[in-house]
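Review session, final week

We close the course with one last complete record, chosen because it touches almost every idea we covered. It is Transcription initiation factor TFIID subunit 7, a protein from Morus notabilis with 159 residues. Go through it on your own first, then we will talk.
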Amino acid sequence: MDEQFILRVPPSVAERIERLLNENPSSSSDDKSFDISFSEDGRTGTFVIGNDSFPVSLLDLPAVVESYKTYDDSVLIKSADIGQMIMVREPDDAAPDAVEYKHGLTPPMRDARKRRFRREPDLNPELVRRVEEDLLTITAGGTAETIDILIFSVYGLCM
């Protein structure tokens, strides 16, 4: 597996990166290099291209994205699972307030965690603890202390 990441940049930065990657290596330009460095927390940092720097954030994606590559334009080979994205922002843009990017990468994944995934159940922690203790007691060969027995009977209706 390759090591891969998703780098999301503003349109102006994307044009500069594309120009840098497509130009002749022998040509002279002040945008010759770009660099990403992260701060101590590992979630924020700086992206530098030429003499300009932009703030970055490392964000978790709501779902794992699979990456594929091909050698002959007909057979795809899975090369990585990507779960995080490096987002480059304009200097005046606000930093994300959460570590998870809630919208995914494509328009159908807009607010994906809220719309597509099951919600956490509302469980009473005391009830969970009691049930766990009862299950451990039963598996050890004992009897549960707090069992409620409900008896249902169903009568058929005749016409």
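Two points worth writing down before the exam:
The first strand starts at residue 6 and ends at 8.
The beta strands are 6-8, 34-38, 44-49, 52-70, 76-88.
Good luck, everyone.
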